[in-house]
Structures are given as structure tokens and as C-alpha cells.
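Researcher: I'm preparing a figure for a lab meeting and need a structural model of a single chain. I don't have an experimental structure, so a prediction will have to do for now. The sequence is pasted below. Please return the structure as C-alpha cells so I can convert it later.
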Amino acid sequence: MELSHFNEAGKARMVDVTAKNDTVREAVAEGRVTMRPQTLELVKKGAMGKGDVLAVAQVGGIMGAKRTWELIPMCHPLLLTGVNIEFTLREEISAIDIRATVKTTGKTGVEMEALTAVSVAALTIYDMCKAVDKDMIVEYIRLTAKSGGKSGNYQREESV
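Model: Understood. Here is the structure written out cell by cell.
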């Protein structure tokens, strides 16, 4: 397997996707923010001083997906056709699970956009809650599925 982000001289490059066909592409990424039970309870009740944590994190995740190309040096700017962020409150482990689904029709995939969406949503949760819980842990950020493009479909086998 060859890395495509290097030219013949071994220097970094943005991959030329001009000749590739447009295909429908989708990627799903997940992550988790673990926190104290009292912090999760404040999030659940909407009682955090800065406002509705999950509403702000949802917008943050969407914005992160849309701006991935500005953050990750070799990513192409993409016309995203859909970004969905879902949160699951996991009281048994005092955590919030985050799932981002990103879609486009284009020449390159949206894996990085999905991963960035989860990352920014998780960091937004941390920012919104850090006044009461600096011990939160952002963890398990990973690609869980992708479809479309030359490499075809991918589905992660194990879950957390």
C-alpha cells in the first residue's frame, strides 16, 4: 500500500482528484466524553451555566465538519450534502457518546470531516463543562464506517 500524500520527491502534496468520478460518499465517526456523574446530570437537566451543552456541541460539530479543509492540511474543500450529530447519554458509565454522519457526492471521501465533527463536538462539550469538571476525558474517537469511492465500503468490527 502506497501513501498518496507524498510526491515523487517525498514531499507533501494534496492529492489530485481531477480525474476521479463523483460518487455518493458517507462516513460515520464516533467518540466519547467521560465525566463525573454530577456533570452529566447538569448536562441532562440543561443546568450548565453556559447554556444547552448538547445544542451548542451539535452546532460545533457541524461547523467542524464544514471547516475540516481549513484545519487538516491535505484535505480538499468539500461541498457537504449532510451532517448529522447524535448524542447518547450513558449514565451507567457517566459519559456522552457522540456519533457524526457526514455525506457528500464528490471525488473524495468524508472520513476526515466525520472525525473532525466528533472531535469538535467533544471539545465543545469539554469547553461548556470545564468550569465544573476539568477531569473530563475525550476518548475513543474513531471511524466506524464509510461507503463510496474507489476503496469501497468499510465497517469497523469492534466497538467500545
